[in-house]
């Protein structure tokens, strides 16, 4: 018997896991007591990880149009199709769609191949659906995509404002830490801002049940209130920020009456929140998909960040605007340029940065401008402009909005490659080639969680069938394209060293992301690597923003003028989508564990008690929700936490699990103009009897 430490593959908490091994099998998992994210805790999904291993439902061999083929045949075909498409139709006709489930090393080589050697920046990721609005907002405010908080701050804050986050279900270990911290410090206050009353509200001193999409009014009004009450930190503003005047001018008309009207809150609830925020130095605002998944998500994030910058509540223990990511490695993907508008090591498509990355890679065909973001990428495929698409570790036929458009895109592409662990997904069903990928417990690499902690995921058991890591597939295709010398890695440690070295290359403090101190790790040191928060570089403090230095051209943070706007009024019901407590994404892993389905084993359509009465609906009755994009059926759940006029449906179901299909079929492909993040939490739907 032996133990091996690794990291949970689900949410952005990034809990350390200690796996107990016996004769090549994982017989149990428990929380890693030494990991900074969880200190031994795990949620129910994490404790069930051992039950997700095994061959059942796994894709075991490469397959072309349903026929098993050898790895050589599969990789030769992928390389030939990639080369042929690019030669005939140009770099804009090829695209990779990646995933926050990939390890950083997988992500790094996929980006390097496309952006450095195939001349295309059409590399985007399902992380676009998760937190790209937070990224865009951080870049506007701080000059770089950097998260200025840690989970310790969430604990040490005296006021914790949770916005658009049902952490009790979606980031359970963070929620457990909050509950424990509140028990230890009864003066700690928790405010939840959410259109629904969720399980997270059980820990709240105050719940602001706002109207859908009104978050920016709440925080624009807060900035106006803080200024009017002389509660701004003038010294901090003067020394470390720019743009206050314009930011205040933008919110000057957002008075109390405006906010009450937009949010639907009562005067007493709003006043209490504004007073608590104004009075509490140690305030952390923690926000998630309820903010990000909106066509105005970036502005909402900046409205929050403005309040922290103007009060100097940032860069100090227990203070800051903290975006928590949905996926285990959304952050690692951001670090290697996994978004179509970024280059590796947090560099952009500015000429000097394109040149720097090209020189570091000795790139033969460097992309010089941003590629297509997720929704635009699939729309381009549906329009016949993208002809070769390689999808890694994700299921866009379920998760992207307007799934009919996504399925049409997959049908129209000349060649679709899907590399995945799972044999049967809505996306794999439409692929020309499927490649078996090694999954959690089988592959080696690193992930970065929401608080910038880099942790190792370690191989615990032999890969199922012929499954191989994604980085290996990419490098094998690169070799077949004649690029082997640039992709000559003998394992993930070699890729990690190169990634770390690039982060430090010509980085004289102008970029926060710097892990150059890890660029010399040996294979043995990489194997043993303990969780570490970046930056990790000689002479660089890991306490980002503590000195008030930002990564903009002037070194000062930018307050962004935000003019809030509400979503259009709905004709019928406002659809909200989200996660259930015990499931993950499209259930390809958690769906294999019977005990995780006990919480809810059916596709539910949540309605308020009054709406149920008005429509004469009973709990458990079959019902449909529909709009011009389609119709999805499920079983009624009467949810007292829902406001009248709102409907909630989980994101997990797909063709694979239900004939009803995915709820994203009804979500329009509307995106935020800055981030490209889809508006997955708001659609107009009608409730129909079936
Ligand atoms: Fe895994 Fe997230 Fe649960 Fe931690 S909180 S065990 S990372 S799913």
From TrEMBL:
GO terms for molecular function: 4 iron, 4 sulfur cluster binding; metal ion binding; molybdopterin cofactor binding; oxidoreductase activity. Keywords: 4Fe-4S, Iron, Iron-sulfur, Metal-binding, Molybdenum, Nitrate assimilation, Oxidoreductase. GO terms for cellular component: membrane; oxidoreductase complex. Its cofactor is [4Fe-4S] cluster; Mo-bis(molybdopterin guanine dinucleotide). Residues 1-57 form the 4Fe-4S Mo/W bis-MGD-type domain. The keyword Magnesium does not apply. GO terms for biological process: cellular respiration; nitrate assimilation. Belongs to the prokaryotic molybdopterin-containing oxidoreductase family. NasA/NapA/NarB subfamily. This is Nitrate reductase. It comes from Seongchinamella unica. The chain holds residues 1 to 690 of 874 of the full protein.
């Amino acid at each position: 018997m032996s133990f091996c430490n690794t990291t949970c593959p689900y949410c952005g908490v990034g809990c350390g896991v200690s796996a107990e091994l016996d004769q090549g099998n994982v017989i149990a998992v428990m929380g890693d007591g030494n990991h900074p994210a969880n200190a031994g805790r795990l949620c129910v999904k994490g404790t069930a990880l051992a039950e997700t291993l095994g061959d059942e439902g796994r894709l075991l061999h490469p397959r072309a149009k349903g026929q098993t083929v050898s790895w050589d045949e599969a990789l030769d075909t992928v390389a030939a199709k990639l080369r042929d498409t690019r030669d005939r139709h140009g770099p804009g006709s090829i695209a990779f769609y990646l995933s926050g489930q990939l390890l950083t090393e997988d992500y790094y080589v996929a980006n390097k191949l496309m952006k450095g050697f195939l001349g295309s920046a059409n590399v985007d990721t399902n992380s676009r659906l998760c937190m790209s609005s937070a990224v865009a907002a951080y870049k506007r405010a701080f000059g770089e995509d950097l998260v200025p908080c840690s989970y310790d701050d969430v604990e040490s804050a005296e006021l914790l404002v949770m916005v658009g986050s049902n952490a009790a279900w979606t980031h359970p270990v963070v929620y457990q830490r909050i509950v424990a911290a509140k028990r230890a410090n009864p003066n700690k206050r928790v405010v939840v801002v959410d259109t629904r009353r969720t399980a997270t509200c059980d820990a709240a001193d105050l719940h602001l049940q706002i109207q859908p999409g009104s978050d920016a009014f709440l925080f624009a009004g807060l900035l106006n209130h803080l200024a009017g009450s002389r509660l701004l930190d003038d010294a901090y503003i003067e020394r470390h920020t720019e743009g206050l005047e314009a930011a205040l001018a933008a919110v000057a008309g957002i008075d109390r009456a405006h906010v009450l009207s937009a949010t639907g809150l009562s005067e007493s609830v709003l006043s209490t929140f504004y007073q608590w925020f104004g009075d509490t130095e140690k305030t952390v605002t923690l926000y998630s998909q309820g903010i990000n998944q909106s066509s105005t998500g970036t502005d909402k994030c900046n409205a929050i960040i403005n309040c922290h910058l103007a009060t100097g509540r940032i860069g100090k223990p227990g203070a800051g605007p903290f975006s928590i990511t949905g996926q285990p490695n959304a952050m690692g993907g951001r670090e290697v340029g996994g978004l179509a508008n970024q280059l590796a090591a947090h560099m952009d498509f500015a000429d000097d940065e394109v040149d720097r990355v090209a020189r570091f890679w000795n790139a033969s065909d460097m992309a010089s401008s941003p590629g297509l973001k997720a929704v635009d990428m699939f729309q381009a495929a549906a329009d016949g402009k993208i002809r070769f698409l390689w999808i890694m570790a994700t299921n866009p036929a379920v998760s992207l909005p307007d799934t009919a458009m996504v399925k049409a895109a997959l049908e129209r592409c000349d060649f679709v490659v899907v590399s995945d662990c799972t044999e049967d997904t809505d996306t794999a069903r439409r692929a020309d080639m499927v490649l078996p990928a090694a999954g959690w417990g089988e592959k080696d690499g690193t992930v970065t969680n929401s608080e910038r902690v880099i942790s190792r995921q370690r191989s615990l058991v032999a890969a199922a069938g012929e499954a191989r890591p994604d980085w290996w597939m990419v490098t094998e295709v690169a070799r077949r394209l004649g690029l082997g010398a640039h992709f000559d890695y003998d394992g993930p440690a070699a890729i990690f060293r190169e990634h770390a070295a690039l982060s430090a290359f010509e980085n004289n403090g102008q970029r926060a992301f710097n892990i150059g101190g890890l660029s010399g790790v040996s294979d043995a040191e990489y194997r043993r690597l303990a969780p570490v928060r970046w930056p990790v570089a000689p002479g660089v403090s890991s306490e980002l923003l503590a000195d008030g230095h930002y990564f903009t051209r002037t070194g000062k943070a930018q307050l962004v003028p935000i003019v809030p706007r509400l979503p259009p009024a709905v004709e019928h019901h406002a659809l909200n989508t989200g996660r259930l407590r015990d499931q993950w994404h499209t259930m390809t892993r958690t769906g294999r564990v019977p005990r995780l389905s006990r919480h809810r084993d059916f596709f539910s359509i949540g309605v308020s008690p009054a709406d149920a009465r008005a429509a004469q609906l009973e709990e458990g009755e079959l019902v449909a929700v529909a709009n011009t994009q389609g119709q999805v059926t499920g079983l009624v759940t009467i949810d007292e936490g829902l406001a009248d006029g709102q409907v909630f449906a989980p994101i997990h179901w797909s063709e694979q699990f239900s004939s009803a299909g995915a709820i994203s079929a009804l979500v329009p492909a509307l995106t935020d103009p800055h981030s490209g993040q889809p508006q997955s939490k708001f659609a107009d739907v009608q409730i129909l009897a079936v």
